[in-house]
Structure formats: structure tokens, C-alpha cells
Amino acid sequence: MQAAAVHGHLLQRLCAEAFAERAGGSRERRTSPAARTADMLSTTLARRMAMKRGAWLAMVLWACAAGAFAAGKDEARKQAESSMLVTGTVDIDAEGRVERHALDKPEALPPAVVELVDRHAPGWRFEPVAVDGKPVKARAKMSLRLVATKLADDAFQLRIRSGVFGGDGTVAREQQVTSAQMRPPEYPPAAYWAGVQGTVYLVLRIGRDGKVEDSFAEQVNLTVVGTDKQMRSGREALAGAAMKAARRWRFVPPRVGSEADAEFWSVRVPVEFTLADSVGSRRGKYGQWDTYVPGPRQTAPWLLEELNASDSPDSYAANGVHPVGEGLRLLTPLGDG
Fold it and tell me: What is the three-state SS of 313-332?
């Protein structure tokens, strides 16, 4: 499987990149935008760094040479996981049973992925949707996070780890929280020069004036490996930068509909920090496996009673503003393989 090669060479390529850059001179690095529209967020550098690059490269090279940045191939394999985000739609009847499901671009997905979803989806059960007190049929967009776990003898176990079943895309903008001003965060200098990359999964509490009342980093996944201390430091740096920027963001609250009179609204915003021409920035296309180190999951204090059991921050694509609690509520397990 493609993921095996990625696991095996992740550390080697990271260190080799640092040595090549030291020997060949400085290369310009830039952030890779996650999206191009107002509803899509990317991280960019707001200014050119003033620090000398040589000192930071020396730190990375020393870490690679001394084994401090990563404990070796075996340790990298233990930390990293191969994952794929697949999307589609699901239709349920008035009793919450799945009538049909469809994956986006199934021809681009590995056959084992299509077979796994096809095998488990018919057994899902959802909380029935009611309109004016009467159960009705419903459709929702689905986003599934699949994970391939390496077993003995180069075999892999494939499972659906998490999923979200959001709205059907027909809700008018006036009925949901939309972005008004979302200036991308600055790349943390230390993380930038050390080559730290990843995705911060923010959840925001939006007040009635459209300002961010509170922000929380639910999870930070990294595309580089290191010691526990280095990984923790990298996650804190990226999360801090994302939350600092989020405090200045502005949103437009719903003006009509069932959510218009709420005291506040919760939304998720994944924020990507990537560096051009580096190992972690070579993210796979739809239907290809990505390798990253998942961070610990934490829950925002004000969301303790709102989340689905199947819900997970990294089930959301790294773009857009995703309302929390929107869509179908799954009542049964997704399926383990």
C-alpha cells in the first residue's frame, strides 16, 4: 500500500531536506493557501522574517543528526498514521435508516475504501429528522475520516474512524453563520524556521454582534515528527497563532430561521500551516493517502453536550466555516473494518 512507503521515508526525507537546504543555500518558503474564496482560509506570512536562517537550520540539522528530532524510522511509524478524507451524501428515511449513499468521485478512490463504506453505510442509523413535529426523509453531506493501521507482515487494517453528516447545502446564507473578515494568521517564527507544519482545528463561539467571544484548539495534527516535547511545542505554537488571529475575525450571524435568536453560535474552522516545497506540504489529492501525526483531542467547555459520538474535528475538510451541531446525528457505530 502507498502508505507504507510514506511511513518508512518520512523522517529520512525531512532530515535530507534540511541538509540539502544547508548545503545549497536558502530557498524561499511560502505558505500554501487552503482556499481561494471568502469562506476558505489559508495561512500566509504577513512579513518577511528578519532572523538569520542559518542559526535555525543549524538547530534542525543538529536535531536530525543527534536523533532528538525523531527517534528513527520505527518511532516515526509509531507516531504517524495514514489517513484519507472522503466525502459524499447520505439519504435517510423517516425512521432514520439509510436508503442510499453515494461517494464523491468513487473512481478516484481505492477499491478497498469504496468497499468499506459500501459495507457499513447501510447499517447506520440516525436520529429521525422532524419537520413541524412529523418525521421526514432527509439528505446530508457526509465527510468520513478513514485510517489505515499497519499490522504485521506489511498488512493494513482499514477503518472509518470518524465522520460528520452536515447540511445538504440548501440552507440560505441568511440562515447560517458566515464569514465577514478572516485575516489569515501569521506563521509563528520559531515554527516557520524549524519547518513545523500542520492543521489547527479551531472551534469558535460567535456572539450576537458577530465577534469571536471564545476560541479553542480542539486538535492539532502535524505533518512532521519529533520528540514528545518538540511535538507539543509545535502544536502549541500553531494553535496559539491560529487563536490569536481568530480573536480579530468577524462573522455575520443568522438573520432568519430557527437559529436566528440563539445567544451564540459555534463554528469549526480548520487552519492549515504549510511551507512550500517541503515534505509536509506535498498533501495528497482526493483519493490519496496523507501521512501525519494526529494530536490529542480536546473538547471546548461550552460544547460538552452538543457533540455526536462519531464527530471529530479532523473529519472536516481544511476549508470553510462549519456550524457545530448542523446535520444528522448518528446513533450507531461507523464501522471498524
Answer: HHHCCCCCCEECCCCCCECC
Q: If we measure between CA atoms, which residue out of 163, 102, 176 comes closest to residue 328?
A: 163
User: What is the grid cell recorded at 123?
Assistant: 447499517
- Spatial distance between the Cα atoms of 185 and 167, rounded to a whole number of angstroms: 28
Helix, coil or strand: residue 97: strand
Average pLDDT over every residue of 38-51: 38
Instruction: Find out whether 80 and 7 touch, Cβ atoms under 8 Å.
Output: yes
Grid cell digits, residue 247 = 480573536
Show Cβ contacts of residue 312 under 8 Å, excluding neighbours closer than 6 positions. 145, 161, 162, 163, 164, 219, 297
CA dist 121 and 213 (Å) reads 38
Classify 229 as helix, strand or coil: helix
| Predicted TM-score (pTM) of this structure | 0.75
User: From start to end of 168-264, where are the E strands?
Assistant: 178-181, 198-206, 212-222, 250-252
Instruction: Quick: pLDDT tens for 218-246.
Output: 999 998 888 888 999 999 999 999 999 99
Say if CB 215 and CB 303 are below 8 A apart: no
Helix ranges (H only) for the chain are 2-24, 53-66, 73-79, 111-120, 189-194, 228-246
C-alpha cell at 24: 545549497
Q: Are the C-beta atoms of 330 and 163 separated by less than 8 Å?
A: yes
Sequence-separated (6 or more) residues with CB below 8 Å from residue 172: 256, 257
d(CA 321, CA 203): 10
